């Protein structure tokens, strides 16, 4: 039994690529906060909209559990966890509300520079290292490719040099990490960027109105930017 909240709570990344741009975007919507001493909670001053600073991977679950009402998170994280839920036959609990126009990147398959890439069939019987097992498995199935998914939570790009895998599936932004590891991108599974996420079901009246107000301000702020 979650007590009724009359304030809106938004989860954002505590540190990492989306952390500063997410706060800046919300500030440009007229939000201001008073920070707690541990800097994990920011109490909304201009509006009853609070921030929770968390690991990005925790954001979909926090929305699913109703601990937070909205989140700013990479589409890659949202799609991976959504796809994992779907593969377990669990009902959708969160969804993308809108793209936010920053933090753009791709989820790509990359192979050693020396490979003469012929297409997905070349991955048959190979090992592919990734932090995105659900999205990769779904893609392999759609391509009818039988490959082994090797789960790593980070530094995926060194897996081929360590002999753990022949190829990888990871996020590519500038491409610098791939080239530093003598890998080249060959195909894209997902175009990603920061998105506003929320529950699949509607919020209650008070928080729903705050969420609508925020989205109208986001419309305005994003229109000025582009
Ligand atoms: C991301 C991603 C790649 C890298 C790609 O990692 O996993 O490793 O950035 O960026 P680039 O194409 O500009 O080189 P990040 O630095 O966010 O760290 P993480 O993998 O530990 O999350
Ligand atoms: Zn992360
Ligand atoms: Mg990385």
From TrEMBL:
The chain holds residues 6 to 231 of 304 of the full protein. This is ATP phosphoribosyltransferase. Pathway: Amino-acid biosynthesis; L-histidine biosynthesis; L-histidine from 5-phospho-alpha-D-ribose 1-diphosphate: step 1/9. It comes from the Bacteria. Its EC number is 2.4.2.17. Its cofactor is Mg(2+). The gene is hisG. Keywords: Amino-acid biosynthesis, ATP-binding, Cytoplasm, Glycosyltransferase, Histidine biosynthesis, Magnesium, Metal-binding, Nucleotide-binding, Transferase. The keyword Transmembrane does not apply. One of its GO terms (molecular function) is ATP phosphoribosyltransferase activity.
């Amino acid at each position: 039994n979650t007590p009724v909240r009359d304030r809106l709570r938004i989860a954002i990344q505590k540190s990492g690529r989306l952390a500063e741009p997410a706060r800046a975007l919300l500030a440009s919507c007229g939000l201001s906060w008073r920070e707690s001493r541990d800097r994990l909670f920011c109490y909304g001053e201009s509006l009853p909209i609070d921030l929770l600073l968390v690991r990005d991977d925790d954001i979909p679950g926090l929305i699913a559990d109703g601990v937070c009402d909205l989140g700013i998170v990479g589409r890659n994280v949202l799609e991976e966890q959504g796809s994992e839920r779907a593969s377990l036959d669990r009902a959708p609990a969160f969804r993308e509300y809108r793209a936010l126009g920053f933090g753009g990147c791709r989820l790509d398959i990359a192979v050693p520079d020396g490979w003469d890439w012929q297409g997905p069939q070349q991955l048959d019987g190979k090992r592919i290292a990734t932090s995105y097992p659900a999205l990769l498995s779904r893609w392999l199935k759609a391509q009818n490719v039988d490959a082994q998914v090797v789960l790593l939570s980070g530094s995926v790009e060194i897996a081929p040099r360590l002999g753990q895998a022949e190829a990888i599936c990871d996020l590519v932004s500038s491409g610098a990490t791939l080239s530093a590891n003598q890998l080249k991108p060959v195909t894209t599974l997902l175009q990603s960027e920061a998105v506003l996420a929320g529950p699949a079901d509607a919020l209650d009246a008070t928080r729903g109105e705050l969420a609508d107000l925020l989205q109208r301000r986001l419309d305005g702020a994003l229109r000025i930017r582009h």
